[in-house]
Amino acid sequence: MSSKKLGIFNYLSKPFVKLVEKYYPDAFIFVIVLSLLTFVLAINLTNASPVQTLEAWGNGLPKLFTFTAQITIIMITAHALAHTEPIEKILSKVGTLPNSSTQAYALVTFISGIASLFAWSFGLIVGGIVSKFVAIGCSKKRISIHYPLLVASAYSGYVIWHMGYSSSAALFVSSEGHSLEEKIGILPVTETIFTTFNILLAIITLVIITIVNPLMRPNNKAEISEIDTNVFRFHKNEDISNLNQENRTFAQVVESNRFFSLFVGFSLFVYIFYFFSKNGFSLDLNIVSWTFLAFGLILSNSPIHYVKLVNNAALTVGPIILQYPFYAGIMGMMADTGLISILADNITKIATSETLGFYSFLSGGLVNMFIPSGGGQWAVQGPVMIEAAKNLNVEPYVIVLGVAYGDQWTNMIQPFWTIPLLAIAGLHMRQIMGYTFVIFIITGFLYGSAMLYLGSG
User: Fold this and answer.
1) Which of 68, 73, 196, 261 has the lowest tally of Cβ within 10 angstroms?
2) Are 161 and 117 contacting, i.e. CB atoms less than 8 angstroms apart?
3) First to last CA, the chain
4) Are 288 and 119 in contact (CB under 8 A)?
5) pTM of the model as a whole
6) Per-residue exposure over 135-170, b if at least 16 CB sit within 10 Å of its own CB, e if not
7) 337, 56 contact by CB (below 8 A)
């Protein structure tokens, strides 16, 4: 690739990097601003009074507590699993693979993308950890790496998560007894996630971002910010099992006995296999969590070792726990005041049967800025868009894919889900989101064109 072509992408990313560094607030401030904006929109666009809107906000705050707990457990168990010694050894070897900066950016993008297709939570955790190991591996080889772009590359893999196994919207409509079953029936994942259209689009997207991310690398050495290896201390977790046998109490002997962690881990796998035999290969947040927990327990050195891994992982979820009630409040205002219906109705008024999928994509992206939860967003937006599909005689799966693509698309400019990845990588959101803005633009054209093609068929 010539330096001239390289300069085009580097030049394209620079204004977004400066924009984010100068004007993008911290993720917590971001949700406060969104809350105020939603409040103002609800008062001005609906019949709700300020008191009614405030009540809708307050009533909404606790509505995602269960989901927040599920997300927290997934993040903690995925983080703990990724830090077990066998997984860290694998990741350390992965870190030594790149022999150039181009290979490093591409490798991190590809790995995080594949991990995101497996499970969105795993993609974020693996992306942060792989970034760290690759940066350190390159540092040892004296390969100059712009660490913020490397971490941004990891986060960009998240732009295809809704096309994989953990797609919230697709899993929702494939579940027996879901709230829209009377209108659309049960849509199996073979009509959404596992369609040729979705699989090909996921592959194309992953290939494109794997090529584009390395092309955004700075060509001026003064602009390169390498990883500070002193920030991260790589060592084996100290385990009580390493204590001198004579110094161990009975309690410490029990805590460091690997039998207990193995027993619980394999018991969880027995339950998971039983669940699949009874319900088919039906992934939900709980099963994903128990899978991570089972692997983590089995690969840890002992029960007390796993507890230490969980304690370290807990540091990454604090901001998520803090912010999710506020996003639930936003969801409450949008749903209870009718704001979401008004926004969706205005979109569907200009849509036709050929373009409704495209507008579902755009509206999905817009709503995701206010409700960064695939499941929560679908619960609010799904009924409105499905009703529009029914009126325009559009197949429901088109709406499911459109909303899903919109959700994953604007994650590139919505800072909420950067939190767990950045907690691992040791950076701030403002250091990476200028680069993900470029991915946002590219995938916007790609997904928008794909939905227009799907509608025309």
Assistant:
1) 196
2) yes
3) 37
4) yes
5) 0.84
6) bbbbbeeebebbbbbbbbbbbbbbbbbbbbbbbbbb
7) yes
